[in-house]
Structure formats: C-alpha cells, structure tokens
Amino acid sequence: MKRTADLPCHPPPVVGFSDSYTGGFVDGFHAHDRAQLSVFLAGSVTINTLDKSFVLGPGQGMWIPANTLHQANCRTDLMFQVVYVDSEFVGPDLPCKMFDLSTLVRGLVDEIVAMRFEFTMDERMSVIARLLVDEIRRAPRIAERLLLPSDPRLRRVCEAIMLQPGDCHDIDYWARETGMARRTFTRLFQQEMGMGFAAWRRRVRVIEAASRIAAGQPISKVAFDLGYDNASSFSTMFHRTFGVAPRTLRFNSEPGSQL
C-alpha cells in the first residue's frame, strides 16, 4: 500500500495512493496545487469546504479542484484512495462534486494507484488520466450536501448542530446564542440558506442517519440518537428525503453489493 508520506517532492502529473485514517482524526483546512479525487472504500467522512459540507461513505467519490480549501473530519475509521491530477488534464469547469463510483472509475483509480510514484507519464497513462476526468465529469452529482452560511454567527450554529445532529434546542435558543431576535435569526437564515432553520436541521439529521446506517448501526438506535420519537416517524422522513427506506442503505453497504 502506498501512503501519503511516500509521495515524492516532484510526482508525475497524475499520481495516486491508498491510505487510512482513524476515527476522530481531523485533517484541518488545507489546499493542493492539483485537483484531488478521493475514493472511499470503508468508513465515513465529512468533507468541508468554505461554503459546503459533504458526508461520504463507501462506494462514493469526491472531486476537489486545485487550490480549494477543504477539511476532512473522519467520523469512523477510514480507508480510501486519492488521485492528484495536474491541471493539464482538467478543464476549468469541474467544481467540487460528490458522486457514486462506477466500475470504470474504480478500475481507472486502481490502475493509477498500482503504478510506482516515479513512473513515466506515457501515452497510455495520459489516456487513463483523461478518461478518469471525463468519467468524473459525466457522473451524476449527488445532491445530498449541506450548504453553510457565510454569516459567522449562523455558521457557528450550523457547525454546532452538525457536531450534535440530535440536538433538540429550539430556534429561540439558537437565536439567543447568536445574540439575535428570533425574527432576525429566521429571516437571515432563510436568506443565506434558501430554506428555514427546521428544514436545514432535518437535512442534517437524515444525511447523518444515512452515514450511520451504512456503517451498520441499528435503524432504531439511529432514529433515537437523532431526536426522533420512534423509528416509524424517522423512516417516513428518511424516505421523503432519499426516496428509499432506511433499510435499503444497510443492504447496499453489505460486502459484494452494488454501490
């Protein structure tokens, strides 16, 4: 297994490696001078940019353009692959993107990771790199992401809720925490986020739930931890958001299933 620490000072234009982090590890905000594709094999991670937050699990990939500040927060032990791609292989119009991995993308990443760091960037590897970027561009975007506000007071509230999605404090409590009147808080939240506070918090909870269920936690425990009175009301909200029952995620996360 190649690791991050083995990356040479002057790698080829496209280079990949495998790595792993322990649960609870936080890779603070940083940026790379190349675009980055992260492919997640096991575990769950939250990736934050300055204005969005993405929750990813096994079978999903995250594309981050060059020079984009981002942070990774490992929710569980994490196994993943990373490919760094020089700008010569990437057009200017491929923004941050979370997507499900196809068999082809997995194969192309495996091929790049299998190469030695000092390999020559010949025609074959150039074709692989361009095809990988093209497949990322074609992959349907997963819309399940969380927007983050630019107002620092609202941002503190959102970050606190993301850390404790089961928190049940009402809007009056959070308005007081920001030093705002309820009406001001409500209006500013709607203006910045394009949705009300309650709707945003529900979205936090169902995305958190999807990650926990995929990791194998019992559905009833997830529902209780996230503030739902019973599994039935939780399942209704989950189906309304994702269009599938919660148990579907557990089936899809089993070894050998199609993700």
From TrEMBL:
<keyword id="KW-0238">DNA-binding</keyword>
<dbReference type="InterPro" id="IPR003313">
    <property type="entry name" value="AraC-bd"/>
</dbReference>
<dbReference type="InterPro" id="IPR014710">
    <property type="entry name" value="RmlC-like_jellyroll"/>
</dbReference>
<dbReference type="Pfam" id="PF12833">
    <property type="entry name" value="HTH_18"/>
</dbReference>
<dbReference type="InterPro" id="IPR020449">
    <property type="entry name" value="Tscrpt_reg_AraC-type_HTH"/>
</dbReference>
<protein>
    <submittedName>
        <fullName>AraC family transcriptional regulator</fullName>
    </submittedName>
</protein>
<keyword id="KW-0804">Transcription</keyword>
<dbReference type="InterPro" id="IPR011051">
    <property type="entry name" value="RmlC_Cupin_sf"/>
</dbReference>
<dbReference type="InterPro" id="IPR018060">
    <property type="entry name" value="HTH_AraC"/>
</dbReference>
<keyword id="KW-0010">Activator</keyword>
<dbReference type="InterPro" id="IPR009057">
    <property type="entry name" value="Homeodomain-like_sf"/>
</dbReference>
<keyword id="KW-0805">Transcription regulation</keyword>
<dbReference type="Pfam" id="PF02311">
    <property type="entry name" value="AraC_binding"/>
</dbReference>
<feature type="domain" description="HTH araC/xylS-type">
    <location>
        <begin position="155"/>
        <end position="252"/>
    </location>
</feature>
